[in-house]
Each structure stands twice: as structure tokens, then as C-alpha cells.
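Hello,

Our lab assistant flagged a job as stuck in the queue for most of the afternoon. It eventually completed. Since we weren't sure the result was trustworthy after the delay, we are filing this so someone can double-check. Below is the sequence as submitted and the structure that was eventually returned. Let us know if re-running is recommended.
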Amino acid sequence: MDVDPSALTEDETNKTIQEIQEEFMVGLLISSTDQKRFVGLKRELHKSYFKGLDEYPKTFKATKRLFATCKVDQSNIYARAHPKKDGVVFL
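-- returned structure --
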């Protein structure tokens, strides 16, 4: 849909700019998330986009909901190695 920018009111122009800025910031947020933790979610978003479905969230609220409900593969989370207790201590 082509819209003549000169036909928009100042309020419509400002609202459009805010929407574009929010979408851009949401994209930055998604791209900067922990790759190891959210690899499955990011992969699914990329796959659907290349299939022609834009399932990327458009707002911070939707992004927060997406990350909160995302099922994280527990094998991808960094874990602290348990120290062995059979070692020698040097003093």
C-alpha cells in the first residue's frame, strides 16, 4: 500500500515514526539476546520469515511475552561445572 507522505497529518507521521523506531529497537533486542540460550527461538523466527511469514514481534510487550514463554533447551544454558572433590589442595 503506497501512501503519500504529504497526505499524512503531523500526528499520523509522529505515530508512524514511533512505530518504526519501536520495531527497529525490538529487532536489535532480539538480535542481541543470548545466542546459546535462545538459539531455537531465533532459528524458528528466521525459518518462518524465509517462508514468507513475519512472526517477529513488533512491540516490546510482545517481545517480552515471547521470551517469557519461550521453551529454552536446558542443554544450551551455561552451567557452572561442579568441582571435583578428589583433588589435592596446595597451601
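-- support follow-up --
The delay was a queue issue, not a problem with the job. The result is valid. The chain is about 50% helix and 0% strand. The CA atoms of residues 39 and 62 lie 18 Å apart.
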